[in-house]
Amino acid sequence: MTTEEITLSQLVQNNYNPRKHFDDAQMKELEKSIRNQGIVQAITVRPLEGGKYEVVAGTRRFIAAKNAGLKKIPAMVLELSDEQAILLSITENLERADLTPIEEARSFQVYLGWDEKHHFEDGQQKGFRRLVDGLSAQLPMSSDTIYNRLSLLHLSESLQTKVEQETLGIKVANAISRLKGLWKIKTAGMSEEEIDENRDPIKTEIHKVMEQMDDANDEAEASQRVKDYLRTAKEIVDTKVDLASKNKDELEKAEEKLLAQLQPVSFPENIKEGTIEEQIDWYKLHIESNIKELSDERLQVISNKRANAAAQRDRYMMNQEYVKKLVLDTCPHCGAGINIPNIQKRVEELTDEIKALNEDEGETGEELKEWRDKKKAFNRIVRDYNSKLKVYQQSLRT
Q1: Which residue segment(s) compose the domain that 343 sits in?
Q2: This model's pTM is above 0.85
Q3: Does 93 or 337 have the greater pLDDT score?
Q4: 2-7 and 72-77 as β-strands: parallel, antiparallel, unpaired?
């Protein structure tokens, strides 16, 4: 450990100093003192590559010396790891009582590797208690106090600013920070992917609730309001979970009915391996295709055949009556012989054909009715399934 006169141009500020703002009046007083008396206490630095030094402790003296126009400054040079440098910076600031509670929290955050992204999620801070206890052993501060300081980081930025400006009491702020419990309530049942997608909106929502509590008169009032809010939020979520569970049961029943309709259907391989929505669409088209074939094709063919047969039968019957009435045995037009039994036979054949066509029409009509009934029943089941699915999905989002 050595003390040297180091040129200010060789010095760089560290990025872990929790102090981000310095009182202007105090800084001017420090500059005046340095101009008159110089640097009374050396700053602490650690060597970096390229002949540079990082200021570990004494940032205000370093800044004031630059503003006072000094070229060099006395510095104690120490070989320090990142962890040692951060701890030394924290210790010096705590001993000087220079830090606000928020600045203390930020210094602990850097040293402990506090995961800001997941700071509402206790499960992401594995082994954190051991780290806090280890830090407490090296500082004049209990583990509980360190935890209380860190809890301030759960607050929104506006509330943190109020704590720094002393317009929000530290005890009230700590009570409000317990609203971080909303995270567990709001993410209950979510997958990791859903949490990742909704992390920022949920964090913003929790911060808005916190900001509604900053008018509490004291810690007791803030604690009670937070407690009441968390209880109500939990009741709402429990109700939503119960409703979602009920809706899920209803959806499963509707799905069973739908699958019972689809199970006997002979799907093409690509549809068979597809989604239930793809099977629904295919089966609907299949039903419509059968209805179209029966109504637009088969029934029309039967109708045309029956009309032709009826027209032929009517002609034969008219000829038969005409011949009988005039007692003719030859055609008056061509002289050909008339065979009344043959005419009668042809009439009977056409009558049988018409009868068969009527029966075929009846069977086709029954088949058509069956397909139309299938369409109606299937559409009803699909509507019920889609309705239950929509209700269930909405119950998960609300």
Answers
A1: 269-397
A2: no
A3: 93
A4: antiparallel
